[in-house]
Amino acid sequence: MRPRWHGDIKWVAAILAVICLLAASLLYDAFRLTTHDVATGAFTAVVAGFMDDKDSEDYLRVQEEAQANPEAEVQMPGVDLTVKGSEIADLSQAEATRLVIGRVANILYYEGPQAVEDLFPQEDPKTPAGGEGEAAPSGARFDLGPAAVLTEEGHSLIKAVLMGFAGAAAFLLLPLVYFSHRAGRLGSPGMVLLIASLPFALLWQIANRTGPADDGGAGIDAELREVLSPTASGLATLHLSTALLGLSLVVAAVVLHLVLFALEKRRTAQATLAGAAPAPLIEANGEPISQPVDWPGGEADPGGQEEQEQPPVRPNALSPEAEPSHRSEQEEPAPGTSQPEPPSPDRWEEDTRREGGRHPVKSP
Q1: What is the Cα–Cα distance from 330 to 340, expressed in whole angstroms?
Q2: Residue 182 main-chain phi, psi, to 5 deg
Q3: CB under 8 Å, gap of 24 or more: what pairs does 185-189 form?
Q4: How many other CB atoms are there within 10 angstroms of residue 47's CB atom?
Q5: Between 327 and 77, residue with greater pLDDT
Q6: Does the pLDDT at position 121 exceed 50?
Q7: Three-state SS string across 52-115, please?
Q8: Is the pLDDT confidence value at 103 over 60?
């Protein structure tokens, strides 16, 4: 019988392992989504989706300069960033905007949010007419918002935290397996893996099976799907494989439990049959023991009903066998003493009737 605290430790380890694996799964997804290609592609798709596709006068002027001098660096309107003239000479404003945003995404990933914010300076303060020294409020500063985490530094931080939760989950699996019993040493970690992986497997399967956009594949959603589809497919496969591994361990534990249960029942049945018909006890000389066996607990012989003790059969005084048997039981008289006379037959019969048909024991 196992102590009760073994089960308590097993349940605590299982709950903590599920929490750590859920956190590790979430962090692993964030780790994959913050790689360079995925992070910069998603940033470009989202920001470019909010830009105006029509060619503005400022862009047409920049494009004329780029066509006139392809080797020169030209300043892009609205951002403190220069590109080579040959790169935008034949591009529309939407294509040129995507090129510039891609450059900004690379700066954000390797240099951080502050470097990107410096590319979008504040508006110059204006001095109102009739007032000297009174400046109007400056324009709002460029803010990246949640996109500020799409950096190499953030990617490394997520990796460090991920390793911590993954190590904690692996450590918690040790007491979970040790304090489990028999087939539970397979089923307990399998159930933990199944619970921690199944939600993410379903989430990424749904995200991966989402159909194309209704506008024929244009828009932010279509561009994001194009960027995230390979990563989503890989994450869906990974989480589904982990969930199937956990399910396989649970099924194996159930099968093992049934096999062990059947073997235990068979062993119990064999032991019961062996105890119902015990082998005869043998003395050291090879002869069987004739006296009855004292069974544990004072119970009767399980091989059959206990025989009732029969009263001794007393021979009839008138039978020819009675007198020799009676005489054999008499002691030899001492020398010099007279032998008592045997009782008469009439006296014997009277004593027999008085005893209810049983022959009384002859007195010497």
Answers
A1: 11
A2: 55, -115
A3: 185/253, 186/249, 186/250, 186/252, 186/253, 186/256, 187/249, 187/250, 187/252, 187/253, 187/254, 187/257, 188/10, 188/14, 189/17, 189/246, 189/249
A4: 19
A5: 77
A6: yes
A7: CCCCCHHHHHHHHHHHHCCCCEEECCCCCCEEEHHHHCCCCHHHHHHHHHHHHHHHHHHHCHHH
A8: yes
Give Cα 335 distance to the centre of its chain.
99
Give the tens place of pLDDT for each residue, 53-92: 665 777 888 888 888 888 888 888 778 888 888 888 888 8
Kindly state the tokens that stand for 138.
């400056």
Residues in the chain: 364
- Taking all residues of the chain, what is their mean pLDDT, rounded to a whole number? 76
Helices and strands in the chain, H and E counts: 11, 2
How far apart CA 71 and CA 65 sit, in angstroms, is: 10
Q: Which residue has the tokens 């004329």?
A: 64
Name the most confidently modeled range: 174-188, 262-276, 278-292, 337-351. 174-188
Q: 224-229 long-range CB contacts below 8 Å, 24 or more apart?
A: 224/42, 224/45, 224/46, 226/45, 227/38, 227/41, 227/42, 227/45, 228/33, 228/38, 228/42
